[in-house]
Design a protein that fits this description.
alpha+beta; Helicase, Ruva Protein, domain 3; three-stranded antiparallel sheet; about 35% helix; about 20% strand; binds zinc ion
């Protein structure tokens, strides 16, 4: 992914990247010629989408390696690493019939990811049964309106 400064016809340089740990993502690109800056913000859903596509912000071209995210988090650390409660296993979470039905309406290529987002949301809050009401709450809490 690259950004082009149209006025200068120059590829902007990647200058900053933030992964605050809450799933949101910010990247700043700047033009070396005129100094213009552009910031890209992504909510957790969009961040996961980018990550799942293997796109590396900043123009990295190396192939992604297994467990990269885990190794990155080990290397960079997380401020809340020791305060986050251990999430319940996603596998223990059940889906109501109508929630399943709603999930089935999600386009196939993102369904697994969407399911994981809702499952994580439920696991983190000790919710064992995902219903359409839980999905509505998750969308509102996570800023996923329109899904
Ligand atoms: Zn420029």
């Amino acid at each position: 992914m690259k950004f082009l400064c149209i006025g200068c016809d120059t590829v902007m340089d990647f200058t900053e990247r933030q992964l605050p740990g809450d799933g949101t993502f910010a990247a700043v690109f700047s033009c070396a010629r005129c100094g213009r800056e552009v910031a890209m913000l992504a909510n957790p859903m969009e961040t996961q989408l980018v990550a799942s596509l293997g796109v590396r912000i900043g123009g990295r071209t190396l192939a992604e390696q297994p467990m990269e995210l885990v190794r990155q988090q080990l290397a960079e650390g997380r401020d809340d690493a020791f305060v986050e409660p251990a999430p319940a296993s996603r596998g223990a979470i059940r889906w109501s019939d109508d929630a399943r039905q709603r999930l089935a309406n999600v386009p196939g290529f993102v369904r697994g990811m969407v399911k994981r987002i809702y499952s994580d949301y439920a696991a983190e809050r000790g919710i064992s049964l995902i219903t359409p009401e839980v999905m509505d709450r998750a969308r509102a809490d996570l800023g996923l309106e329109g899904m």
